[in-house]
From TrEMBL:
InterPro entries: AAA+_ATPase, AAA_lid_NorR, CheY-like_superfamily, Homeodomain-like_sf, HTH_Fis, P-loop_NTPase, Sig_transdc_resp-reg_receiver, Sigma_54_int. Transmembrane segments: none annotated. Residues 150-379 form the Sigma-54 factor interaction domain. This is DNA-binding transcriptional regulator NtrC. The keyword Glycosyltransferase does not apply. The modification 4-aspartylphosphate is found at D60. One of its GO terms (biological process) is phosphorelay signal transduction system. The lineage of its organism: Bacteria, Pseudomonadati, Pseudomonadota, Alphaproteobacteria, Sphingomonadales.
C-alpha cells in the first residue's frame, strides 16, 4: 500500500455534510481528500498535477444522476488503473451491474457504515494481492431470510443451523460467533423470522459502526436536556424493542462502560435512559454477534465475563468457508442461480475446472466474498458457463498447480475418515440428525417423524449432541 502522504482521494460530491464526513473518515486512514462538486471539474482535474497524484475516486451518483455510468466510463478511459467507488442511495442490482461494467471498482449504498467505507478504500488501493474481483460487493443482492436459504452440508455448519433452528423457538439470549462473511446476519434474520417474536419489534445495531459517544443514547435512550446537545428526548433501542428482538452486531466492540449498563439491563429487565429519574420494564430478546471469540477478549480484559455469561445462554459458531470446502460447489450454483435472476444478468453454469479453482482459494472473506467474486465474474462473462479464465485474480493467487487439483465434493454426510476407514455409526447418526433439524427448520415433530423415531428419543439424542440448551 502507498504511504499515507501519497494517498490522495478525489470525492465527487455536492453535499457538504457528506463531504466533511467522508473527508474525516478517510483521514483516519491517512488519506488527503479533495472535493469537486461537478462532473466537468472532476474530468478536468485528472489532467492536472494534483490529479496525477490521485490514488482513488469516490463518486456520489447524485452529482451526475442518470449519467453516473457514463462519467465512470470516461474517468476510467482517462485513468484506467484508478479505482472508482460509486456511492448511491439506490439498491438496484441493475445499477450495480451497469456501474461495474462501466469500470467501478466497488459500489456503496448510503448510508454507508464507516468501517465499510474504509475497508473499501483499503481494498481499492491494496497492491500486494490482486484486488479487483475480490472486493466485497455485499450490497448487490438482497439477503435470504430463512433457514432453507442457508446452503451447505458440512457437519459443523449443519450443527450450527440445528442449534439456531431450535433456539429460534425460544426467548433466551443467543450469541453467534464467526469470522466476517460467514453468514451471521443471514442466520440471525432466519432465526427472527422463525421465532415467536417474528411480528414484533426488531432492530439491529452495529456496535462498531456507531460512534462510542453515541452508543449510550442509541441503546438506552436519553431525556431532553440530559447532556449538552440533547435538545429532545430519544427512545433507545432496548426500550423500542420491548416485546421483540434486539440484535447487537459486533458486540465485541462495545465499550466497557456500555457493557456495564447492558449487564444491568439484562439482569433487571429494566432500562433507564440517560437523565431519567426512573426506568422502564422491558421484555426483550437479545441476539449478539461477534467476529472474534468473546472468551479470548474476556481473557485479555476487553470484555466482561458476566456479560458473556448473560448473552451466551445459547452459543452458536459458524465455521469459516475454508473449513467447509465441500460446500463451495453447492454455494456456487446457488449464488449463480440468484445472480441470474437479477436485472441485466442471466443464468450461468460453471465448469469443474472453475470449481476446482474456487476450492483452492482460502476465502478470507468467507461466503460473502465468494458471492462477490461470482457476481463480478457473471457481469463480465460472455459465455454460458464460468470457467477458470473468468477468475484471473483468484488463479494468480492460488497458482496453476493448486487450481488443477480436483475438489472434494461433500455428500451431505461424510462416511469415511481421512484414513479411508468408515466413521463410527454414532458420528454418522449425529450428522444425519443435524441435517434433518436444519432441513425442517427446527420443527422437532416433523424431524422425528421423518427420521422414524419418537420425540423423546430425538430429544435424548439432541442432549447427547450437546444442542439441548437453546432457550
Amino acid at each position: 500500500m502507498a504511504e499515507p502522504e501519497q494517498r490522495l482521494l478525489m470525492l465527487i460530491d455536492d453535499e457538504p455534510a457528506q463531504g466533511r464526513l467522508i473527508t474525516a473518515l478517510a483521514g483516519r486512514e491517512g488519506w488527503r481528500t479533495v472535493i469537486v462538486n461537478e462532473s466537468e471539474k472532476a474530468i478536468a482535474m485528472l489532467g492536472t498535477r494534483q490529479g496525477m497524484q490521485l490514488s482513488a475516486i469516490i463518486l456520489d451518483q447524485g452529482v451526475p444522476g442518470d449519467e453516473a455510468c457514463d462519467l465512470i466510463a470516461e474517468l476510467k478511459e482517462r485513468r484506467p488503473a484508478l479505482p472508482i467507488l460509486m456511492l448511491t442511495a439506490s439498491t438496484s442490482p441493475q445499477l450495480a451491474v451497469e456501474a461495474m461494467r462501466a469500470g467501478a471498482t466497488d459500489y456503496l449504498v448510503k448510508p454507508v457504515a464507516p468501517d465499510r467505507l474504509m475497508q473499501a478504500l483499503r481494498n481499492a488501493t491494496t497492491r500486494e494481492t490482486p484486488r479487483d474481483e475480490l472486493t466485497p460487493l455485499t450490497e448487490k443482492m438482497p439477503a435470504d431470510l430463512d433457514f432453507d436459504a442457508m446452503v451447505g452440508t458440512a457437519p459443523p455448519f449443519r450443527d450450527a443451523l440445528a442449534k439456531a433452528a431450535k433456539a429460534a423457538r425460544g426467548h433466551g439470549p443467543v450469541l453467534i460467533e464467526g469470522e466476517s462473511g460467514t453468514g451471521k446476519e443471514m442466520l440471525i434474520r432466519a432465526m427472527v423470522g422463525a421465532s415467536p417474536r417474528a411480528r414484533a419489534a426488531f432492530r439491529m445495531i452495529n456496535a462498531g459502526a456507531v460512534p462510542a459517544s453515541s452508543l449510550d443514547s442509541v441503546l438506552f435512550g436519553h431525556e431532553k436536556g440530559a447532556f449538552a446537545g440533547a435538545f429532545e428526548q430519544q427512545v433507545g433501542a432496548l426500550q423500542s424493542c420491548d416485546g421483540g428482538t434486539l440484535v447487537l452486531d459486533e458486540i465485541d466492540r462495545l465499550p466497557v462502560d456500555v457493557q456495564d449498563r447492558l449487564i444491568t439491563v439484562m439482569e433487571t429487565n429494566c432500562v433507564k435512559p440517560l437523565g431519567s429519574q426512573y426506568g422502564y420494564k422491558v421484555d426483550i430478546r437479545i441476539i449478539s454477534a461477534s467476529n472474534l471469540p468473546l472468551a479470548d477478549l474476556v481473557a485479555t480484559g476487553h470484555f466482561r465475563e458476566d456479560l458473556l455469561r448473560l448473552v451466551s445462554r445459547t452459543e452458536i459458531e459458524l465455521p469459516p468457508l475454508r473449513e467447509r470446502i465441500g460446500d463451495i460447489s453447492a454455494l456456487t450454483r446457488h449464488f449463480l442461480n440468484r445472480i441470474g435472476e437479477q436485472p441485466g444478468l442471466r443464468p450461468l453454469g460453471v465448469t469443474n475446472e472453475a470449481l476446482n479453482l474456487l476450492a483452492a482459494f482460502d476465502w478470507p472473506g468467507n461466503v460473502r466474498q465468494l458471492q462477490a467474486v461470482l457476481f463480478r465474474a457473471a457481469v463480465f462473462c460472455d459465455g454460458d458457463a464460468l470457467t477458470a479464465e473468468d477468475f484471473p485474480q483468484v488463479r494468480e493467487i492460488v497458482g496453476e498447480t493448486s487450481a488443477c487439483e480436483p475438489m472434494r465434493e461433500s455428500a451431505g454426510v461424510q462416511l469415511y475418515c481421512d484414513d479411508g476407514n468408515l466413521r463410527p455409526l454414532e458420528d454418522i447418526e449425529a450428522d444425519v440428525i443435524r441435517l434433518a433439524i436444519g432441513h425442517y427448520r427446527g420443527r422437532m415433530t416433523e424431524v422425528a417423524r421423518r427420521l422414524g423415531i419418537g420425540r423423546s428419543t430425538l430429544y435424548r439424542k439432541l442432549s447427547d449432541l450437546g444442542i439441548d440448551n437453546a432457550a
